[in-house]
Specification:
Strand order of the largest sheet: 2-1-3
Radius of gyration: 22 Å
Order of helices and strands: HEEEHHHHHHHH
Number of helices: 9
Structural class: mainly alpha
Strand content: under 5%
Largest sheet: 3 strands, antiparallel
Length: 271
């Protein structure tokens, strides 16, 4: 709504889908009219909001942990305990006999961090961009890191590298190679065919993990932008409020699915 005095609906939508970027070749901040044809570009807004929300998560949990009570817990402590118990329950169900000390904190971090990134989608479309324009002279900014394909694929490939690491750690290097070359057909003549199939299966995990989150969050963001672009400000709530209520479920589910699949993929490294 705030930017529609400047842009028509097409320009308004394009404007809200443009990141605040830095070209690493020229160290130049890319403005709205620059050509985005370089591979060496950083989305500074995605990096900032990802790190900021991660810091919010760490500080919040640390402050609550410093004031734990063995008596009747307060609301914040109850919220933390519910989250931790929820994560532990899923780990016990999906990864029985787990002795890896990394799984629980990793799962909690993934769930809460992605949930906070997704939650940014519920802020008014023009609120943060307007503040950035007014106080920092930044003409465009995207505030939902999980709608940036670079962020979600970086997280999913982080999980992928952990899967490779624990596969080698648990099965041994040669055991890991055997799982690539001797499955599903344990025959010498199918070695390269097995490797081809297993490679596709292995690389499809992080790609599908990241694209699932990206697709759902990008489409949700796009609907909010379309509502804001084509409806007058005084009647946007008719569509935006019901969609926001429904979107809360998507925000939670996408965080949960990413966490669950991370646990499942890591549990498979023992086999």
């Amino acid at each position: 709504m705030l930017f529609k005095v400047i842009f028509n609906p097409k320009e308004y939508i394009t404007h809200h889908l443009k990141n605040f970027q830095l070209n690493l070749k020229t160290f130049k901040i890319l403005n709205y009219y620059d050509s985005n044809d370089s591979f060496f570009i950083l989305n500074l807004d995605s990096i900032f909001f990802s790190c900021f929300l991660g810091l919010v998560f760490l500080i919040f949990f640390y402050c609550v942990s410093c004031n734990l009570s063995s008596q009747v817990p307060g609301n914040l402590q109850s919220c933390i305990e519910i989250s931790v118990n929820f994560i532990n329950k899923n780990i016990k169900e999906l990864y029985p006999g787990n002795k890896n000390l990394l799984i629980a904190p990793l799962s909690l971090t993934i769930f809460v961090w992605i949930f906070l990134m997704n939650l940014m989608d519920l802020l008014p479309v023009d609120f943060i961009p307007f503040l950035c324009k007014k106080f920092f002279h930044i003409s465009h900014v995207r505030i939902v890191p999980s709608t940036d394909i670079n962020v979600v694929l970086a997280m999913s490939f982080g999980v992928f590298f952990l899967v490779i690491f624990y596969s080698i750690l648990n099965q041994g290097f040669f055991g890991f190679l055997k799982s690539l070359f001797l499955q599903p057909f344990n025959n010498f003549f199918f070695l390269f065919f097995n490797f081809f199939l297993e490679s596709i299966s292995l690389f499809s995990k992080p790609i599908s993990l990241g694209l699932r989150l990206f697709g759902n969050m990008y489409s949700g963001e796009m609907i909010f932008i379309l509502i804001s672009a084509f409806l007058p400000w005084w009647c946007q709530w008719i569509l935006s409020v019901p969609w926001a209520i429904f979107h809360i479920l998507i925000i939670f589910l996408q965080s949960f699915i990413f966490m669950v699949l991370t646990i499942v993929y890591l549990s498979m490294t023992n086999h």
